[in-house]
From TrEMBL, chain A:
PANTHER family referenced in this protein's UniProt entry, alphabetically: ASPARTATE CARBAMOYLTRANSFERASE, ORNITHINE CARBAMOYLTRANSFERASE, MITOCHONDRIAL
GO molecular function: amino acid binding; aspartate carbamoyltransferase activity
Subunit structure: Heterododecamer (2C3:3R2) of six catalytic PyrB chains organized as two trimers (C3), and six regulatory PyrI chains organized as three dimers (R2).
Gene name of this polypeptide: pyrB
Reaction catalyzed: carbamoyl phosphate + L-aspartate = N-carbamoyl-L-aspartate + phosphate + H(+)
Lineage of the species this protein comes from: Bacteria, Bacillati, Actinomycetota, Actinomycetes, Micrococcales
Stated name of the protein: Aspartate carbamoyltransferase
Automatic annotation (TrEMBL), chain B:
Descriptive protein name: Dihydroorotase
Active site (catalytic residues): D310
Translocase as UniProt keyword: no
Record field: catalytic activity: (S)-dihydroorotate + H2O = N-carbamoyl-L-aspartate + H(+)
Cofactor: Zn(2+)
Region (Disordered): 396-416
Family: Belongs to the metallo-dependent hydrolases superfamily. DHOase family. Class I DHOase subfamily.
Any single Gene Ontology cellular-component annotation: cytoplasm
Binding site residues for Zn(2+) 2: D157, H184, H237
Matches recorded under NCBIfam families: PRK09357.1-1, pyrC_multi
GO molecular function, a single term: zinc ion binding
Residues noted as binding substrate in the record, renumbered to the chain: H65, L66, R67, N97, N283, H314
Domain Dihydroorotase catalytic: 52-241
UniProtKB/TrEMBL annotation, chain C:
Keyword Transcription regulation among record annotations: yes
Motif PRPP-binding, chain ranges: 96-108
Protein name: Bifunctional protein PyrR
PANTHER family: BIFUNCTIONAL PROTEIN PYRR (PTHR11608:SF0)
Family: Belongs to the purine/pyrimidine phosphoribosyltransferase family. PyrR subfamily.
InterPro entries given in the database record: PRTase-like, PRTase_dom, PyrR, PyrR_bifunctional
Enzyme Commission code(s) on record: 2.4.2.9
GO molecular function terms noted in the UniProt entry: uracil phosphoribosyltransferase activity
NCBIfam families: PRK05205.1-3, PRK05205.1-5
Annotated CDD domains: PRTases_typeI (cd06223)
GO aspect biological process, one term: regulation of DNA-templated transcription
Length: 328, 446, 191
C-alpha cells in the first residue's frame, strides 16, 4: 500500500491487515508509555482544506503516538484561500519535508488526483474528499463492529472479518462519504449492509451497490440488525427539497425514543448504535438514543486513533519488496 | 489572389465518393477535375502525389472556441485558426463566450477582422443570443447580422437559453435575416453543480450528476417552440441517446431542426472520469457507451447533421487542479477527422462522402456559407467551385501527443491514444495553408 | 545441525542455568520474541516448572513484540505487528528473560530492550537464545546459549519448531531442528 484513497480498492486481506495492526496499536494506549517510536523522524502533514477538527485531531494524535512530527495546515488563513493551487501547496509541503499528506478536501476525487498527479512522492491519506469517500472512518467503524462481534464469539478479533453481521446505515446516503466507504468496506469484509433513507437522499443507481436498500427505517429495524449507523443530516437539505421539514425527517428517519425501544427489543442484546459524529440531537437521533449505553460514538473516536495509527504505520514503514519473516 | 500564386495539381486522389481523379487548383478555384486536369497544368504547377489519400471539401466547424478576446493565454484567433488549418478546416465559427462576450457588432467585427488578418481559414463569429450570455435580455442580433461579420448563427453556448419566452423571441427574431439559434441544451437547475454524467458511476465517485433529462427536456421544448414559430433551431453537441430520439421524432414531423455531435462524444465515455483527471471534464459530460453508439447511428442515418469540434482550449492551470474546480472542455480541431475516421469510417458506419457531408456540406448549408462545403450530390468535386480543400491520408496511425499540437493549449483527451489518419495538405481559397503535413503560409489579407 | 533431541537437551540446560543464576524461580518472567521465541519461552517455562514445582508457567510467560521498535522499518516491507502479551503480574520488579531462537546482529534484542522499557521497569533483564551464530553489530551478548554455531554471513540459519513450522503451523516440518543454508539458495533476508 502506497496510499489510502478509497475503501473500494481495499482487498479483504489489506483491510484485515489494517484492522489487525490497529488492534496492536490499541494495546499501546493501555500501557504506561502510550507512544511507539515507529515513525520517529518522519513528518506527517495534516492538510485540511475543509473544517474538521475531530478528524484532524484524531490523525494528529495517531501520528504523535507513532513519534512522527506533525504539521497542521488548514485552509483558513493559508495560501490556499488566497488562490494558491493544490499543486503548489502540496509541493511546498513536500519541500518542507512531508513524508505523508493526510488530506481533507471539499472536492470528490481530490486525494486520488493528488496520488496520481505526479506532483509529489509522499504517501497520501484520504481524510475525506467531498461526497466521495472517508476510508479511515469506515475502517474505524469496521474495527468497532469487529470488536463487538468477537466479544460475542468470545475470541480475539485478529484475522476475523464481519461475516454474519447486519449493519443498517440510515440517513443522507447521497451526500455521505462515510456511507460510501462503509458500503464498500463492510461488504468486502462479509457484512450484510442495508441502506435506509428517503428516496431523495439515495444515490442515483444505488440498486447496483452491493447492499440492500429500503425506504423504511422501521422495516430495517424489524430485521433486528446488529448495528444501526445514524448519519448526520444537515437541516439545510430541506431547502433543496430533499425532504419537506426537519420534523418530517425525524418522524420517518430519526432514531426516536420509540424506534430505540423497538431496536432494544428486536435486536440482539449486544447490538449497537453508531454515529460518525457530530450528532444532531433531536434530528437524526434522540437524546435517549445518543446517551444509550449501546451508542458507540465515543468508542468510535477512541478506535479512530488506533486505526489511523495503523494506516500511517503501514503506509510509512517499508517500501522495499518482500522481505522474509525475521528470525534474528 | 495574386496571379503569381502557382497552381497545384493533386494527382490520383480519392474523391469523397470513392472514385479517383486528378484535381487542378488555379487561382482561387478548382480549375479542373479528371483527365483534363493534368493537361491544363503548366511547368510551374506544383504536383502533389496523392494516391491513397482522400480529398475532401474543406471542413467547416460550427463550434470553435477561439478565446479571443479575453483569454489569449489559452488561444488566439491566430493560433486557433492555425490549429484549424492543421485539422483540415477552411471555416470555423467562433463561439460568443469571449471576454467581453460577442454580443455587440463591435466585438463580432473585431473577431471577424482578426480572422481576416490571420488568413488561415474563414472565421465567422457567432453572436450571443442574450446580453452577456446572462439569459435575460436579447442581444442586438440585428446589428450583428448587419455588421461586416454578417452573423447568421447565434448561440449562448456554455449557457442555455433557459427562459422559454426569450428562446421563442430569439427564434422568431432571427427569421428577419435568415439566422438560426444554436442552443446549448442544459436545464440549469437540474445540473446545478453537476460534474459528470449522472449514473451509477457518478454515485460511486461522489460527483454531482448531470442527468440526461436535463439535456433532453430542453431539446424537446425547443423543437416544439421551433415548430410553433416556424424557425430554424440548431442543437449543439447532442450527447445522449434520448436526445437523438427526440431529434429524430422532430425531423419526422418536419420541424426545421438540425443537430451537432462532437468527436469526443463519438469515442469517449464516462469511464474515463474514474481517473479524476480533469482533461476528461467537458460540457456536456462524457456519457455511456450506449449514448456513444446512438450518436454514431444518428450521424449515419442523418438524424444528426453535423460534427462540431467544440474545440475548447484551456490553460494548464485551469486543468491542473481538482476535478470539481477544473474548467470544462477539450481541444479538438486537430484530432477531429482522425476521431471521425476511427469512430465512423473504420467501423463501416459512414463513407467519405458521408464524412464530407457532416463535416463540410451540412454545416456550410446550415450557416448559409456560399463558398464552403462544395460537393456534388454524388460525392464528387466539381470544377469551378472555390478551392477549399483538405487532403487526408487515412492510412497511417499516430499516437496523439498534445505537446506537438498547433493549438496553444494542451488539454487533449486523446493523449497517448492511437488514432488513424493525418491531414497532409489544405487549400484555403486556392492557397496552400498546409503543405506536406506542416503549416505553410496564410493567405494574404484581401 | 541440531536435532529435536539436541534442542530439547539445550533447553533443559538453559532452564537449569536460569534457576542457578537467579537462585530459584522467584520473580522470573519469560518473554518470547515473535515468532519462534514465544514457543521456546513456553517450553522453557514448562521445564522450569518441572524442576521447581512452585513455578507457575502460565503466570510467568509472555510475548514481546518488537516490530514498532525495529531500526529497519523504512527499508523492509511493513510488517503487521504481533500481539504483546504480558503475564498478569507485569514486568515491574521482575527478572525478565528475553527468549529468541537465533542471536545474530543483536538489532532485534536492541529493539526488544526499547520495547521492554516502554512497558515497565524490570529489576534485571537477561537474554536466552537457542542459537548464537555470531556477527554481532551491537554490544549485546546472550546470558544463556543453547548452541554456538559459527556461520558465514552468506549463510542462513533456519530454526524449525513444531508449534510454528509443524503440520499445524505454516511449514511441513514434523520435527524440531536447526539447519544452515547457503543464502544464495534461499532468496530473502532471514538473519
Amino acid at each position: 500500500m502506497k496510499h489510502l484513497l478509497s475503501t473500494a480498492d481495499l482487498s479483504r486481506s489489506d483491510a484485515l491487515q489494517i484492522l489487525d495492526t490497529a488492534e496492536e496499536m490499541a494495546a499501546v494506549s493501555g500501557r504506561e508509555v502510550k507512544k511507539l517510536p515507529a515513525l520517529r523522524g518522519r513528518t506527517v502533514v495534516n492538510l485540511f482544506l475543509e473544517d474538521s477538527t475531530r478528524t484532524r485531531i484524531s490523525f494528529e494524535a495517531a501520528a504523535k503516538r507513532l513519534s512522527a512530527d506533525v504539521i497542521n495546515f488548514s485552509a483558513k488563513g493559508s495560501s490556499v484561500s488566497k488562490g494558491e493551487s493544490l499543486k503548489d501547496t502540496v509541493q511546498t509541503l513536500e519541500a518542507i519535508g512531508a513524508d505523508a499528506i493526510v488530506m481533507r478536501h471539499w472536492g470528490s476525487g481530490a486525494a486520488a488526483q493528488l496520488a496520481s498527479s505526479g506532483w509529489i512522492t509522499s504517501a497520501v491519506v484520504n481524510a475525506g474528499d467531498g461526497t466521495h469517500e472517508h476510508p479511515t472512518q469506515a475502517l474505524l467503524d469496521a474495527f468497532t463492529l469487529r470488536r463487538h462481534l468477537s466479544r460475542r464469539h468470545g475470541s480475539a478479533p485478529h484475522g476475523r472479518d464481519l461475516e454474519g453481521m447486519h449493519v443498517v446505515i440510515v440517513g443522507d446516503i447521497l451526500h455521505s462519504r462515510v456511507a460510501r466507504s462503509n458500503v464498500w468496506l463492510l461488504t468486502t469484509l462479509g457484512a450484510r449492509v442495508t441502506l435506509a433513507a428517503p428516496p431523495t437522499l439515495m444515490p442515483f443507481g444505488v440498486d447496483a451497490w452491493p447492499c440492500e436498500v429500503t425506504y423504511s427505517l422501521d422495516e430495517a429495524l424489524a430485521t433486528g440488525p446488529d448495528a444501526v449507523m445514524m448519519l448526520r443530516v444537515q437541516a439545510e437539505r430541506m431547502k433543496d427539497a430533499f425532504f419537506p421539514s426537519a420534523a418530517e425527517y425525524t418522524r420517518s428517519w430519526g432514531l426516536t425514543d420509540e424506534r430505540l425501544a423497538v431496536f432494544e427489543s428486536t435486536s440482539a442484546a449486544d447490538a449497537i448504535i453508531m454515529h460518525p459524529g457530530p450528532m444532531n440531537r433531536g434530528l437524526e437521533i434522540s437524546s435517549a438514543a445518543a446517551d444509550s449505553p449501546r451508542n458507540t460514538a465515543l468508542e468510535q473516536v477512541t478506535n479512530g486513533v488506533s486505526v489511523r495509527m495503523a494506516v500511517l504505520y503501514l503506509l510509512l514503514s517499508g517500501s522495499a519488496p518482500d522481505s522474509q519473516e525475521a528470525t534474528v | 489572389m495574386t496571379a503569381t500564386e502557382p497552381s497545384h495539381l493533386i494527382l490520383g486522389a480519392t474523391m469523397p465518393n470513392g472514385t479517383t481523379a486528378d484535381v487542378l487548383i488555379q487561382g482561387e478555384v478548382i480549375a479542373a477535375v479528371g483527365t483534363d486536369a493534368a493537361d491544363r497544368a503548366d511547368e510551374a504547377t506544383v504536383r502533389i502525389e496523392a494516391a491513397g489519400r482522400v480529398l475532401l471539401p474543406g471542413l467547416v466547424d460550427l463550434h470553435t472556441h477561439l478565446r479571443e478576446p479575453g483569454k489569449e493565454d489559452a488561444e488566439t484567433v491566430e493560433t486557433g485558426t492555425r490549429a484549424a488549418a492543421m485539422g483540415g478546416f477552411t471555416s470555423v465559427h467562433a463561439m460568443a463566450n469571449s471576454t467581453p462576450v460577442a454580443d455587440t457588432a463591435g466585438v463580432v467585427e473585431q473577431v471577424w477582422q482578426l480572422g481576416q488578418e490571420a488568413g488561415w481559414c474563414d472565421v465567422h463569429p457567432v453572436g450571443a443570443v442574450t446580453v452577456g450570455l446572462a439569459g435575460e435580455q436579447l442581444a442586438e442580433l440585428g446589428a450583428m447580422a448587419q455588421s461586416r461579420a454578417q452573423v447568421r448563427m447565434f448561440s449562448d453556448d456554455g449557457m442555455c437559453v433557459q427562459d422559454p419566452v426569450l428562446m421563442r423571441r430569439a427564434l422568431e427574431y432571427v427569421k428577419a435575416f435568415d439566422g438560426f439559434i444554436a442552443q446549448h441544451a442544459q436545464e440549469p437547475k437540474l445540473t446545478a453543480g453537476a460534474q459528470m454524467n449522472e449514473g451509477e458511476l457518478s454515485s460511486m465517485l461522489g460527483l454531482a450528476g448531470w442527468p440526461a433529462v436535463a439535456e433532453e427536456a430542453i431539446i424537446a421544448r425547443d423543437v416544439l417552440l421551433a415548430q410553433h414559430v416556424g424557425s430554424r433551431l440548431h442543437v449543439c453537441h447532442v450527447s445522449t441517446a434520448g436526445s437523438v430520439e427526440i431529434i429524430r421524432w422532430a425531423k419526422e414531423r418536419g420541424i426545421e431542426v438540425t443537430a451537432e455531435a462532437t468527436p469526443h462524444h463519438l469515442l469517449l465515455t464516462e469511464e474515463l472520469v474514474r481517473t479524476y483527471n480533469p482533461v476528461f471534464k467537458v460540457n456536456p459530460p462524457l456519457r455511456r457507451e450506449s449514448d456513444v453508439m446512438a450518436l454514431r447511428e444518428g450521424l449515419a442515418d442523418g438524424t444528426i447533421d453535423t460534427i462540431g469540434t467544440d474545440h475548447a482550449p484551456h490553460t494548464a492551470e485551469t486543468k491542473e487542479c481538482e476535478w470539481t474546480v477544473a474548467a470544462m472542455g477539450m481541444t479538438g480541431l486537430e484530432t477531429a477527422l482522425p476521431v471521425v475516421q476511427h469512430a465512423l469510417v473504420d467501423t463501416g458506419l459512414m463513407d467519405w462522402a458521408g464524412v464530407a457531408r457532416v463535416m463540410s456540406v451540412n454545416p456550410a448549408r446550415i450557416a448559409r456559407l456560399e463558398t464552403q462545403g462544395q460537393m456534388d450530390p454524388d460525392g464528387g468535386l466539381a470544377a469551378g467551385a472555390p478551392a477549399h480543400l483538405a487532403l487526408y491520408d487515412p492510412n497511417i496511425t499516430r499516437t496523439v501527443d498534445p505537446e506537438t499540437h498547433t493549438t496553444k493549449s494542451r488539454n487533449s483527451p486523446y493523449r497517448g491514444m492511437e488514432l488513424p489518419g493525418q491531414i497532409t495538405d489544405v487549400f484555403y481559397g486556392g492557397h496552400p495553408v498546409v503543405r506536406d503535413r506542416a503549416l505553410s503560409a496564410p493567405r494574404q489579407h484581401r | 545441525m541440531l536435532s529435536a533431541a539436541d534442542i530439547d537437551r539445550a533447553l533443559t540446560r538453559i532452564a537449569h542455568e536460569i534457576l542457578e543464576s537467579n537462585k530459584g524461580p522467584e520473580n522470573l518472567v519469560l518473554l518470547g520474541i515473535p515468532r519462534r521465541g514465544y514457543p521456546l519461552a513456553q517450553r522453557l517455562a514448562a521445564k522450569l516448572a518441572g524442576i521447581e514445582p512452585g513455578f507457575d508457567p502460565e503466570a510467568s510467560t509472555g510475548q514481546l513484540d518488537v516490530t514498532m521498535y525495529r531500526d529497519d522499518l523504512r527499508r523492509s516491507t511493513s510488517r503487521t505487528p504481533a500481539p504483546t502479551r504480558l503475564p498478569a503480574r507485569g514486568v515491574d520488579g521482575a527478572v525478565v528473560v528475553l527468549v529468541d531462537d537465533v542471536l545474530f546482529s543483536g538489532r532485534t534484542i536492541r529493539a526488544a530492550l526499547d520495547a521492554l522499557s516502554d512497558i515497565g521497569r524490570p529489576d534485571v533483564v537477561r537474554l536466552g537464545v537457542l542459537v548464537d551464530r555470531g556477527h554481532r553489530e551491537l554490544p549485546i551478548r546472550a546470558d544463556f546459549v543453547g548452541k554456538n554455531l559459527p556461520t558465514s554471513t552468506a549463510e542462513r540459519v533456519q530454526v524449525r519448531l513444531t508449534e510454528i513450522d509443524g503440520p499445524d503451523g505454516t511449514g511441513e516440518s514434523a520435527e524440531d531442528g536447526v539447519s544452515i543454508f547457503d543464502r544464495a539458495d534461499e532468496p530473502g533476508d532471514a538473519r
